[in-house]
Amino acid sequence: MTIDTATMISITEANQNFSRVAKLVDEHGTAVILKNNVPRYLVIDFSKAEKEKVANTEDVLAISERLLQQNMEAYKVLAE
């Protein structure tokens, strides 16, 4: 995941000024809250979260194919 430095905010500032976090999400789609200077929390626009929740059909097919190839021997043994 790529993090835009313009969307980073400290947990202290987020706690004191949550409207700034909301503004960052409105402008950029996400905000990253840092705890001890390390990205810890991700605030995301709800509509974007709904879109991200659904996996792309091509991704699912690619993962399925990879798993089939990796476990082909086990499937052959089970088929016997």
Polypeptide structure, described:
The chain is of the alpha+beta class and 80 residues long. Strands 1-2-3 form a three-stranded mixed beta sheet. The relative contact order is 0.11. Helix content is 59%, strand content 20%. The protein contains five helices and three strands. It folds into two domains: 1-44, YefM-like fold (3-Layer(aba) Sandwich), CATH 3.40.1620; 53-80. The model has no long low-confidence stretch (mean pLDDT 85). The chain is elongated and about 65 Å long.
Question: In short, what is this structure?
Answer:
By secondary structure, the protein is α+β, with helices and mostly antiparallel strands.
Give the arrangement of secondary structure elements:
Elements (H helix, E strand, L loop, with lengths): L7 E3 H6 L1 H11 L1 E6 L2 E7 L1 H8 L3 H14 L1 H8 L1
Parallel strand pairs: 1-2
Antiparallel strand pairs: 2-3
Q: What order do the helices and strands follow?
A: EHHEEHHH
Q: Please tell me how large the radius of gyration is.
A: 20 Å
- Biggest pleated sheet: 3 strands, mixed
CATH architecture of the largest domain: 3-Layer(aba) Sandwich
Q: Characteristics of this structure?
A:
single chain, 80 residues, alpha+beta, YefM-like fold, 2 domains, three-stranded mixed sheet, elongated
